[in-house]
């Protein structure tokens, strides 16, 4: 390996014919080459580099502008969403309050309806009891009247003759017909 590097170093000491030649001394030629290359790059590449940097700057500015627009749109959408949320919360509270009021109103309507139904049932019960009492009283009256009539007829039959008996029966039948008309 040492021979290879020595051969490169020794090439720098060989004299070349004429005025043109390669200087193989890396340490001597590098700064000159770098200066020339940088000079050429700066002279010719300044416009290209400037254009590249301007394009990059414009893309960055456009990206920032787009980001600001998107941010503004997002803020606007956020405000709309917050407004909708407030509206929905208000409606929910209104429904909740109305729901409770409606439940209370329905509860009282049901209680009142049940009370009225119970009153009607109590009235029907009382009417039925009164009707049954009247029926029982009328039945007892008829039985008492029937027994009194049979008792009177028995007494009359034993005490009266046929002609008197027929007149009494006719009078009682007339009286019975009059009573029946009054009852009906």
UniProtKB/TrEMBL annotation:
Lipid bilayer topology: Single-pass membrane protein
Domain of life of the native organism: Eukaryota
Pfam families: ATP-synt_B (PF00430)
A GO molecular-function annotation: proton-transporting ATP synthase activity, rotational mechanism
InterPro entries in alphabetical order: ATP_synth_b/b'su_bac/chlpt (IPR002146)
Coiled-coil intervals: 71-98
UniProt keyword annotation of Transport present: yes
The entry's keywords: ATP synthesis, CF(0), Chloroplast, Coiled coil, Hydrogen ion transport, Ion transport, Membrane, Plastid, Thylakoid, Transmembrane, Transmembrane helix, Transport
Subunit comment: F-type ATPases have 2 components, F(1) - the catalytic core - and F(0) - the membrane proton channel. F(1) has five subunits: alpha(3), beta(3), gamma(1), delta(1), epsilon(1). F(0) has four main subunits: a(1), b(1), b'(1) and c(10-14). The alpha and beta chains form an alternating ring which encloses part of the gamma chain. F(1) is attached to F(0) by a central stalk formed by the gamma and epsilon chains, while a peripheral stalk is formed by the delta, b and b' chains.
Family: Belongs to the ATPase B chain family.
Chain's role: F(1)F(0) ATP synthase produces ATP from ADP in the presence of a proton or sodium gradient. F-type ATPases consist of two structural domains, F(1) containing the extramembraneous catalytic core and F(0) containing the membrane proton channel, linked together by a central stalk and a peripheral stalk. During catalysis, ATP synthesis in the catalytic domain of F(1) is coupled via a rotary mechanism of the central stalk subunits to proton translocation. Component of the F(0) channel, it forms part of the peripheral stalk, linking F(1) to F(0).
Extra information: In plastids the F-type ATPase is also known as CF(1)CF(0).
Name the UniProt record assigns to this protein: ATP synthase subunit b, chloroplastic
Species name: Primula obconica subsp. obconica
Gene: atpF
């Amino acid at each position: 390996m040492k021979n290879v590097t020595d051969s490169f170093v020794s090439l720098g000491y060989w004299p070349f014919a004429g005025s043109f030649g390669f200087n193989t001394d890396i340490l001597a030629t590098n700064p000159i080459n770098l200066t020339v290359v940088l000079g050429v790059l700066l002279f010719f590449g300044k416009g290209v580099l400037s254009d590249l940097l301007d394009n990059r700057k414009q893309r960055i500015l456009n990206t920032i502008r787009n980001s600001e627009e998107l941010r503004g749109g997002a803020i606007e959408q956020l405000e709309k969403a917050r407004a909708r949320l407030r509206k929905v919360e208000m409606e929910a509270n209104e429904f909740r309050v109305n729901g409770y009021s409606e439940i209370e109103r329905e509860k009282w309507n049901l209680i009142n309806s049940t009370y009225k139904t119970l009153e009607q049932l109590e009235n029907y019960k009382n009417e039925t009891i009164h009707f049954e009492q009247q029926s029982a009283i009328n039945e007892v009256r008829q039985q008492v009247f029937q027994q009194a009539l049979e008792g009177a007829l028995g007494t009359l039959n034993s005490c009266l003759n046929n002609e008197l008996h027929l007149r009494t029966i006719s009078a009682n039948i007339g009286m019975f017909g009059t009573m029946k008309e009054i009852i009906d």
